[in-house]
Amino acid sequence: MVTAADATAVDVADETVDKLLDEGTRPGDVLVVTTGEQHPWAQHELSFGEDAYWRQLAEGEDVFCVHTTALPSVGRRAVVVLAVNGGTDSEAAEALPAALTKAGRSLIVCGDPQRLRQLL
Which domain of life does this protein belong to (predicted)? Predict the structure, then answer.
C-alpha cells in the first residue's frame, strides 16, 4: 500500500513503477491498472488505435497500463500496480480482487488507505 489521493494516485503509481524498474524488475513484468481516468500513457497509445495498443500487451516488452474495466482481457503479470485514481466506491472495491488475480508476485495499491479500508 502506497498512500495517495485520487488526484495523485497515477503519479504515485508511476513513481512506484520507476522504483521497481530501478530495482531490476523487467518492464514486461509490470501492469498498471487505473480505476478512474485511463492512465495518460494508455490514452496516448489508444490514440493510435486499439490494435496497436493491445499489440503492445501481447508483445510483453514494456510496462502496460489498462483501466480496470479491461482487466478480463489482460493476462497475469508478476507485479500489478493499482492506482485508485477515482471511480465509484463499488468500482474501486471490485478492482482490488480483480487486480490481485492478475498479480503473480505482488500487488501494490496506490490510493487513500482510509477509503480502501472502508471498501474492504
Answer: Bacteria
* CA 37 distance to own-chain centroid: 11
CATH superfamily of 2-119: P-loop containing nucleotide triphosphate hydrolases (3.40.50.300)
Distances (CA, A) of 76 to 32, 54, 73: 12, 15, 10
Residue bearing cell 493476462: 75
Query: Which residue shows C-alpha cell 530501478?
Result: 22
The answer to whether 79 and 30 have CB atoms below 8 angstroms apart is yes
Residue-wise pLDDT tens digits, 79-92? 999 999 999 999 99
DSSP 55-109: HHHHHT-S-EEEEGGGGGG---EEEEEEE--SS-HHHHHHHHHHHHHHEEEEEEE
Domain boundaries, the chain: 2-119
The answer to whether the beta carbons of residues 83 and 12 sit under 8 Å apart is yes
